[in-house]
Every structure is written in structure tokens, then in C-alpha cells.
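Annex B. Sample input.
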Amino acid sequence: MTRFRRTATAAAALAFTAAATAVFGFAGPASAHVTVNPKEATQGGYARLAFRVPNESDTASTTKLEVVLPENAPVGSVSTMPVPGWTVTTEKRKVDPPIEVHGSQLTEAISKITWTAAGDAGVKPGQFQEFPVSLGPLPQVDSMVFKTLQTYSDGNISRWIDEPAPGAEEPDHPAPVLTLAAATATPAGSTAPSAAVALPDDDGDDDGNGLAVGLGVAGLVAGLAGLVLGGLAFARTRREPAAKA
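Annex B, continued. Sample output.
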């Protein structure tokens, strides 16, 4: 009977863990190198990105971040979001041919973004900081590699500049990579979405997470139900010998 009770409890715990993961999005620890999030965007569109910078030092703080935009994929519009305690500067370069943005021909593009901590605002040991950027229109390339330098208060510099190689293991100091997917073309004369596409609610609050949350709640309920049934079965087996006696 003890084995049955342990099995029922373990099954319920497993279901609860799966449900919690689906509902709350629990995940494993993030990798220690600088990354760009999200990791995917669409060619020709605009994207709000964040460079996520974990502090790897046990004693020093991260005081400067330099992000170099790829030369083979210039972007016409680059804007940054204020980060408390940090100042931001940009550098430009000439581009040829020019970049067209909303009918205008641009002959210069941002080539580098530098964030510098003021006072005690650096990223301290055991912490991380995100640096948001808006980019667009995104170029017609498969990916953008952002070579990045992370400077610490003790003078050490982590150079996240290694580009990924197809089929190879991740390099020791990988550069943040944004994968770009081709925009989906709308068929000519099409005025209604496909029946397979879920439409949002009229109030516009449906962000596509409803299904995942529903499935997670269902898994949680199923796990709790399994625990209850296991307990009832155990109680019934305890009563049956007593009744026979």
C-alpha cells in the first residue's frame, strides 16, 4: 500500500511540475554570455530587442557594453531605451548603396552602440542587465551577428565576438545572433485569414498565450485529480480488510 501511495504522489507531483512550467514559463538558468532577446525576427519589419548582459566576475562590476552592428546588414532606424544609471552613445558610418526608409535614402547608418555606467550603476556580481534597442527595417539577410565587448571595473574585457559556424559546437565567446525569417507573403486577392489562424478577441487582449495557459491549467487539474484518486483508492483498500473481518 505504501508503494501505491508513493506512486500516486509522484505522479501528481510530476503533473503539477508540468502544469507549472506551462503556466508560469519556468526554465533553466540562462547561459552566462551576452545574448540578444528575442533571438528571432522578420526581415523588413521592426523589432524591439534587448541585449542581456550577465556579470561573470566574482569581484568586479560590468561598467561598459559596446555592441557593433554588422557591416553587411545596415539598419536605417536605430533607437535606444533609457537605462537608469547608464549613458548611451552611438557611432555612424557611411553606407553604399543607401538604405531606403519610408521613401528616404539614407547614406549613413548606426555602426556601434556604447552604454557606460555612471557612478555605482554597473552590473554587480550575480546580477544581469538588459539594454533595449529598436531596429528596423530589418535587412534581407538570414541573420545579424552583433559583436560585443563587455568591460569590467577591474579593466578586464570579455570579447563576445566569435561567429557561429554551421554544424559546429558553440564557440567559447559567442557573439549575440539574431535570426531573421523571410516575411510571409499574403496571396493576391486574399481578404480573410486562413481558418487555421486563431483570431484575437474583440478586446484585443489575446496575445496568443491563452491556449498555453489553458493547457497548463488542465495539466495542473489532472495532476491534482490523480492525487485525489490515489488517496481514495488507498483509503478503500484500508477499509476492505476491516469490512471482511
